[in-house]
């Protein structure tokens, strides 16, 4: 059986990491049996989560895990899509993972109130004499990566505006469809769901979340995906909360 290593529940989400969420939903899409274990990034071959163990092999990075599933188990996440549509889903996935994701990181890690509420607790189990230093170092490294991503080079309101343009693109693509590409979920739906749910979780307050909530088809999409793939998770529907 496949073992999926992730952070686990937290921040009002069934899985803290959008990338682990992506892989977990894709495992569910493929109908593959798996068990889930908590881990921290240093345990991974690439120093990041998720990674999986499958028949003695460790595969890290959600994109490479997807490729492994497709090769080994013969599951096509984009079945029914033509060549142009497959190219479009790849472009949307890159936009989500290299733009929208970093806006989420800024809201969680760079905002001091949200950092104190959420990520700072990753280090609660560390020895007291090094705990605060570990927190400061981690926040500094994430803030540095946020800067390198490009979004962190802008004023706070400007980086939100750029992120909202990407959310707008997803909203337009989704339109009134149940999934990004039509009536059937594709691999990129797992990616989009993980990132948008991470922004919309009521656990954190942010301008990014406030702006994202204005896209009613995206909030309904997260509600729909949550019910489909995490039916036992206690999620308050965003449409209902609004």
UniProtKB/TrEMBL annotation:
A GO MF label: transferase activity
The keyword Secreted is assigned to this record: no
Cell membrane found in the keyword field: no
InterPro entries: FAX/IsoI-like (IPR026928), Glutathione-S-Trfase_C_sf (IPR036282), Glutathione_S-Trfase (IPR040079), Metaxin_GST (IPR033468), Mito_Protein_Transport_Metaxin (IPR050931), Thioredoxin-like_fold (IPR012336), Thioredoxin-like_sf (IPR036249)
Alphabetic keyword roster: Transferase
Domain called Metaxin glutathione S-transferase: residue spans: 165-225
Pfam families linked to this entry: GST_C_6 (PF17171), GST_N_4 (PF17172)
Source superkingdom: Bacteria
Domain Thioredoxin-like fold: 18-114
Name of the protein: Glutathione S-transferase
Natural source organism: Bradyrhizobium canariense
Lineage: Bacteria, Pseudomonadati, Pseudomonadota, Alphaproteobacteria, Hyphomicrobiales
């Amino acid at each position: 059986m496949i073992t999926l290593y992730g952070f686990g529940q937290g921040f009002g989400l069934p899985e803290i990491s959008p990338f682990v969420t992506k892989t977990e939903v894709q495992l569910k899409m493929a109908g593959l049996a798996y068990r889930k274990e908590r881990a921290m990034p240093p345990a991974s071959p690439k120093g990041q989560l998720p990674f999986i163990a499958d028949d003695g092999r460790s595969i890290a990075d959600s994109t490479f895990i997807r490729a492994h599933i497709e090769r080994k188990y013969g599951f096509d996440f984009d079945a029914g899509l033509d060549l142009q549509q497959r190219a479009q889903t790849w472009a949307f996935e890159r936009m989500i993972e290299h733009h929208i994701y970093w806006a989420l990181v800024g809201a969680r890690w760079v905002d001091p109130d949200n950092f104190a509420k959420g990520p700072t607790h990753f280090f609660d189990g560390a020895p007291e004499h090094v705990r605060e230093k570990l927190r400061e170092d981690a926040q500094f490294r994430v803030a540095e990566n946020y800067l390198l991503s490009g979004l962190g080079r802008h004023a706070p309101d400007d980086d939100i505006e750029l992120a909202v343009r990407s959310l707008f693109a997803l909203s337009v693509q989704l339109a009134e469809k149940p999934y990004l590409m039509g009536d059937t979920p594709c691999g990129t739906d797992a990616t989009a769901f993980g990132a948008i749910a991470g922004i919309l979780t009521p656990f954190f307050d942010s301008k990014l979340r406030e702006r994202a909530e204005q896209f009613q088809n995206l909030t309904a999409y997260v509600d729909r995906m949550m019910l489909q793939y995490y039916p036992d998770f206690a999620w308050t529907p965003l449409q209902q909360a609004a």
